[in-house]
Amino acid sequence: MNKRGIYIHIPFCVQKCNYCAFLSFNAESSPRKEYTDALVQEIRCRGEALGHPEVDTVYVGGGTPSVLDLSQMRDIMTAVSESFSVKPDAEMTIEANPGTLGRKDGVTLAKLQAYKYLGFNRLSMGVQSMENDRLHFLGRIHTAENVARDMELIRRKGFENVNLDLIFSVPGESTKDALSDLKKVLDLKPEHVSCYSLQIEEGTPFGRMAEEGELTEVPDEEDRRTYHEICRALKEAGYEHYEISNFARLPEGSAGCGFGDAGAKAASPLRSQHNSLYWDMDDYIGLGLGASGFAGGVRYKNTDDIEEYFAAINEGRFPLAEEHVNTPFDNISEAVFTGLRRREGISYEEAAAAYRAAGGEDAEGSAEQLFWQVFGDAEAEAREYAGRGLLIIDSEGLRLTEQGIDISNSIMSLFV
Length: 416
Ligand code: SF4
Known about the structure:
The protein is of the alpha/beta class.
């Protein structure tokens, strides 16, 4: 374990988006104050139980954290700073959706100032599209004009690390439309861009429309073509494609780079430090309703049920739904699964370290030998993927090529 972060879940939104399967409820009709008080208690108990450890990142996500009152956000962040030793240079992110930062410029600027005061130095905005018809179809509450105006105020307040999320493969959207959306996003000069293909999930309005034949998903072939065009455009614009869905701007004058590119290229300093904890098998402490954590070799998940959450906190218990102590195989398997999501892939050394961290017996020989001893059954198929140019296997470890991303689930599942 090299680094440690905190994730805090705020499960409230102004309204539910048509595709959303995340854990979030209508903010107006939800007990936001009661939730904040319970969350503060959970933060304090976790900090105490872990001995007030140092943390490198804090990420407040949701849902839509920016729907909370500033006094509620202040209570949460005070509890964080009093319960954990947040490093002075920690990356501190808040998700702030367009349309929730205040209608008037003065209100928005005051809110942003308060976020700065609370220590946030990175903002993540769910832009999703820059076309108003598409935003409306997705059920978003904002317009493209809201995004442009929020970004202007965010920059005016001096935030220099902003992520913008974009969704592609929305039914009815062509590759050309997606690229036009991306261009408008890039005009805002974000430091980081996350691009996701729309998933139609059961139980969502889109899921129901698909069942009734009112919505047709974008065919796989078209979805993949759009994805690769997006990767190309972002590389051309000087971004590092460092994780399957994530792109970070490289220093001025550097050429963009991505999966499978030859030669070792330096990592962008603007990679998401917090999300990298997940892919690097570092510790993260999940707090709040439905939050997951991985700390000291134990994976856990909090309950999704808000009444159970309140009951557990009132009784002085952690609101856990699941807890699992990782075995050496769990650890190495997860390290490979998450590591392959990164441009650099998984090295044999990292995989062996994950195995040993869970008490795996040190086999005689090199980390590479240990790797193939553990995954002996997967070797022939992995080498076949390598022969097809989808995976690179060398003396350092394994990494996907950009084409390999299209079947990444099949490749990763070899190591589960
Ligand atoms: S803003 Fe995000 S979390 Fe909230 S409903 Fe929309 S997709 Fe879901």
